[in-house]
Amino acid sequence: MIEKKVLRQKLIKRTLYTLAIFLVIFLCLDFIIYQRLSHILYNDVDNGISDAMEILKDTLRDKKINNYIINIKTNPRVICVIRNSSRRDNE
Question: Do 53 and 71 contact (CB within 8 A), yes or no?
Fold first, then answer.
């Protein structure tokens, strides 16, 4: 009877250790996979948005339109907003 209790306690203890180690390994691998996928999925989109913003800036600079305000953040996932400053002043 005492042996069964000891064996059961050891089994429960080792099972909990195994589950804890599995959980840590699983979370680490999940984090690595998430980082890689988010980088792969968004890298092309970020490059495309950055290129579009550069083309837009060049186009506005070539046309020498001074009454537009361009708000561009450093993060390419932020949308480029163009506002007509003369219209804003009239309102």
Answer: no
Rounded Cα–Cα distance for residues 71 and 77 (Å):
13
Q: Flag whether pLDDT at 89 surpasses 50.
A: no
Cα–Cα dist 37/31, whole Å: 10
Burial of 63 (0-12, 13-18, 19+ CB in 10 A): exposed
Tokens of 31: 């984090």
Secondary structure element (H or E) that encloses residue 59, with its range: helix 2-63
44-86 pLDDT per residue, tens: 777 777 777 777 777 767 665 555 555 555 555 555 555 555 5
Q: What confidence tier does 88 reach under pLDDT thresholds 50, 70, 90?
A: very low
